[in-house]
Input
Amino acid sequence: MSDVSLEDIVSLCKRRGFIYPGSDIYGGLSGTWDYGPLGVQLKRNISNLWWKTFVEDRDDMYGIDAAILMNQKVWQASGHVGGFNDPLFECNNCKNRFRADHLVENWIDAHPDKLNAVIHEAYNQSPETLNHYKNLYKMACPNCGKQELSDVRQFNMMFKTHVGAVEDETSVSYLRPETAQGMFVNFKNVVDSFYPDVPFGMAQIGKAFRNEIAPRDFIFRVRELEQMEIEYFVQPDGWREQFDYWLDQQKQFLIGLGLAEEKIHQVEIGPDDRAHYSKHSVDTEFDFPFGQKELLGCAYRTDYDLSKHQAASGKNLEYRPKDGGTPYIPHVIEPTFGLDRLFLAVVASAYCEDEVNGEKRSFLKLPAHLAPISVAVSPLLKNKPELVAKAKEVFAMLKKEFGSVTWDDNSNVGKRYRRSDEIGIPYHVTIDFDTLEGDNAGTVTVRNRDTTEQTRVGIEDLVANLAL
Ligand code: ATP
Output
């Protein structure tokens, strides 16, 4: 488990402009959150790093940005209309609905005495198993306490809408529940345009929507989320090696984001719990403040999606080997990354508390390459024009170099440092009277967020001295 509480993170995120509740002034909208100025920058730094690592730095990856709304036939062929369901129990008394597997899971956690191998396997199991344990242990509604939970019902999580002015069955569309299908339906386009060698991949970053029965744990389970997904096309007999490779790539990416290796767990998913398209799945779980939960997924989707789309669209989606070999439908390894969950894992990992000069301090020890702001610049006193003028010069120089530089001349230096630390600014540069004259003329104070150490650095050496 992480040492920081979720409440600390939520409160910091709201107070300091990382994340606000969606539709806040109207009392919010369950399962939606808005990223504020610092949050959007941090999120973008994470997604830019992902794009650089998996698209720009490779020569076998093709990025796309497909439309969120797609022809309803896409979702029929992919199996999402029929199978993208979560099991729910409805309370016949108070009418509240609960995710059946979560309710059973929570009940088991609360009754360790009843825990045994059989019931442990009830996690995410078939409706029959969930009903069986609900009835056997007389599980009650978590809201009203009555033992009046219905049997499991399947609930489709796609948001349905209509495209155009006519609302009938032909105009039905869905907000995509995963970005993956945008890549499968563009597979032929990319092959026709670029004719890459197999293996190669397609990558996409974008919003996905899931009408979760019970959104919870801040941005961990939301209804509007952002995914970063790769569909990596391989020869059928080479899938295992590629799968293991991508699993390792996922782990290395997390370590590069500053997540502790011992908090990362890769867990194989049993046949009953896998998505309908997967023949082998490994989730990468992380020790969040509320327990060990899924952060990323990796699935062997076989030729499931391309075959379904080939059959439904009538278009040939086979790949023609360049050596004249027999055309075939490539198999797919899908490493998928939830951006909101990554954001939460990064902030939870960075959140620290210590004591400076006898006072408690909380700060975000974000890796410098992720910090939404790299440097803060301050004149020691804001009512001394000569200090302000020099500080503005330094500010302009750093801004030109690093972009994400902020100005802070409010209150005293100690308070400025605390404010900088709390939002994870790695360096705070202060221009004081010594900058202007005396033995130290031309130098500034650079304070390090993590060590709180202050050093004097010449202005001309400043850019080179900041490890950004
Ligand atoms: P879970 O079991 O937690 O519902 P899942 O197995 O359905 O997740 P996938 O379909 O594999 O998730 O989605 C890929 C990734 O998208 C997940 O690993 C996660 O990072 C992210 N994700 C999925 N659902 C949500 C959600 N409701 N809110 C935030 N992120 C999500």
Remarks:
- Residues 210, 212, 221-222, 225, 227, 294-297, 336, 338, 340-341 surround adenosine-5'-triphosphate (CB under 6 Å).
- The mean pLDDT is 94.
- Residues 75 and 81 are 6 Å apart (CA to CA).
- The chain is about 35% helix and 25% strand.
